[in-house]
Design brief:
GO terms for molecular function: ATP binding; ATP hydrolysis activity. It holds the Pfam family YchF-GTPase_C. This is Ribosome-binding ATPase YchF. By secondary structure, the chain is of the alpha+beta class. It has a single domain, classed as Ubiquitin-like (UB roll). It has 5 helices and 5 strands; from the N terminus they run αββααβααββ. The chain has a 5-stranded mixed β-sheet with strand order 2-1-5-3-4. The relative contact order is 0.25.
Length: about 100
């Protein structure tokens, strides 16, 4: 029920994984990769280069992030890319 209300309010989540922390980041539907990077930290938005994206279904099907990358499921997107619900993202940015 909570997820339905979340979606009805116009929100989606993107995911960051790796290291010590895996996290879901709530954002408004229609947000670009550049804007999504800014929800984590303004430095990511300022120095945005590309977003490495793996669809959640591809991640699960492959059995993990490393396997999804090996299977060619990761793609590089520009700052204009519109984020999709449950995209798994690694932001490339300069400091």
């Amino acid at each position: 029920m909570l997820l339905r209300a979340f979606a009805a309010a116009g929100y989606i989540c993107f995911l960051t994984v790796g290291g010590k922390e895996n996290r879901a980041w709530p954002i408004r539907k229609g947000i670009t990769a550049w804007e999504a990077g800014g929800t984590i930290h303004t430095d990511i938005q300022k120095g945005f280069i590309r977003a490495e994206i793996i669809g959640f279904a591809d991640l699960v099907e492959a059995g993990g992030e490393t396997q999804a990358k090996r299977a060619g499921k990761q793609r590089l997107e520009t700052k204009q890319y519109v984020m999709q619900d449950y995209d798994v993202v690694n932001f490339r940015f300069s400091k």
